[in-house]
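Running this now, will post back.
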Amino acid sequence: MNGEEQKLGKEKAEKHDGLLRSVHRAQQRRLQQREDEPSVMRFVGQIGVLGWVIVVPILIGLFIGRWIDLKFGTGIFWSAPLMLVGVCIGCWSAWRWMHRQ
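Update: finished.
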């Protein structure tokens, strides 16, 4: 009887060890998935940065164009083209930033 009990005890211990290994592997997979998956706040932050990457060059172009127009009295001759240059620079910068992420 003692030999049979030891045999059953070993089988039970092996099953228990297998279960522990399986649980450990599942836990490691979950942790790895959490590290790989970006959070919602990260997405919100990226959208905010992307907006500023586009808007800042537009505003810089507009302010420089407006300053030149006021200096030389040319209406919106420089404001509109420099704003469009800002749009192009902002969109190009955003495109580059998105491809780096």
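The chain has a mean pLDDT of 84. More later if anyone needs it.
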